[in-house]
Amino acid sequence: MADSSTLNEKSTRRVFVETFGCQMNKADSENMLGLLSEIGYEHTLDSKEADLLILNTCAIREGAEDKVFSYLGAWGKQKRKRPEMMIAVGGCVAQEKGASILTRMPYIDVVFGTHNLHRLPDLVLKARSEKTSVVEIVQELPEDLPELPVIRQSDFSAWVSVIYGCDYNCTYCIVPYVRGREKSRTAEVIEKEIEELTQAGYLEVTLLGQNVTAYGHDLDPKIHLGDLIRRLEKFEKLKRIRFLTGHPRDLQDGIIDAVHEVESACEYFHIPIQAGNDRTLRRMARGYQVDFYKRLIEKVRNKIPEASITSDLIVGFPGETEQEFMDTVNLVEEIQFDACNTAAYSPRPHTHSAAWADQLPEHEKYERLRFLNSVVGEVSHRINRRYVGRREEVLVEGESQRDETRLSGRTRTNKIVNFEGDKSLKGKLVDVEIQSANPWALRGSLCSSVVPAK
Length: 454
Ligand code: SAH
Ligand code: SF4
Ligand code: F3S
Known about the structure:
Radius of gyration: 23 Å
CATH topology of the largest domain: pyruvate-formate lyase- activating enzyme
Distance between the termini: 56 Å
CATH superfamily of the largest domain: tm_1862 like domain
CATH architecture of the largest domain: Alpha-Beta Horseshoe
Largest sheet: 6 strands, parallel
Helix content: 25-40%
Number of domains: 3
CATH class of the largest domain: Alpha Beta
Number of strands: 19
Strand order of the largest sheet: 2-1-3-4-5-6
Structural class: alpha/beta
Bound molecules: S-adenosyl-L-homocysteine, iron/sulfur cluster, FE3-S4 cluster
Strand content: 15-25%
Oligomer: single chain
């Protein structure tokens, strides 16, 4: 009879990954899966059958961090029933808290940070063989960025990280602390990755960075995001190029021009303003005033009138008066954003504004958030209604989350479109005639000319 050690040496193990936070975290998770496949871990979507559970965490707001600890608590209970199961925690909360996570949750096997993803296989093997918890957090990315293996979750739309970190120091934001300084990948390695993607049939790439608009300023020779987009123009099979997320100050004319001129670059700009009031922007240390932002939007719209423009907004920043908050609300009306990510200010460790005395009570922040959301929704609805009657190119992503009998996809301007159609259209570009709109999505019907012949 086999002894327990041979029983434990299974040839294939399974890994389950839960990802919180931004698209960069999603991209990192795909690299984690790639790295772990090299030591025999297959991806599973069922945590109950996994030998290794990974939580890729986000620290942007307190709520995101609380979610991490409630997940880890639940996984701890699972581990009591299956002690051989391993748990690893990575991402921004791991980077921030390091070994202290083990004080609260000693059953965690591996804690790794945002700068040493490439070490994950070694750390897992070490924890597994030595049956001990392993913690490794480093303060910077390796000098020469390693090219990491990847297992992507989509076979038609890919995340491609092009710059890591953020050199700004907004007074509310933990990202510079957990993601470090800006570091760009070279255009050559990005181009090679995207060439391979197009050969594999990918139609869409989203270039990612915590501050993607700063791409290339640290390279020698310096280039900008517009140059990179132009270098991708030659891939004819690549139909859509997007980029996320950036700081308005870095959205230089060359980037707007490239989006205008390169056919595959989508008419979509996510340009976070954060607040519509100059005193608040100054105290946030954003480095621009509302007027600068308005001129920037004007520039985008003069060049690309059909562009959709979305933003991020924070309400209830310390010391924000009711009038200052209303400036943000009024700005949404004035700019006519297609959509906005809105959030109540959350004081974060390692940030300046967390220590300020004039914090607003939670109920006040949430009241402001509710009101702002209602205005954002009205404006989005108004803009979305303009699509009714138009014929739009849609990249089909799959079944609609709300209604499985429908398909869901996105326009070039990043509007969600739901429509009836065959599942085989997933991953294809189709034309949809838009028939109705709500604040969050459009509804339409597939144009008959694109239904594939049976
Ligand atoms: N680099 C981008 C933003 C990346 S962080 C920019 O400069 O705009 C993503 C979003 O999280 C931010 O735009 C901001 O709206 C939100 N956010 C960051 N810190 C926050 C905090 N402490 N409380 C509430 N929202 C926050
Ligand atoms: Fe955070 Fe964006 Fe400011 Fe950087 S630029 S500190 S990521 S809000
Ligand atoms: Fe969150 Fe880290 Fe992204 S804090 S938003 S996962 S960079």
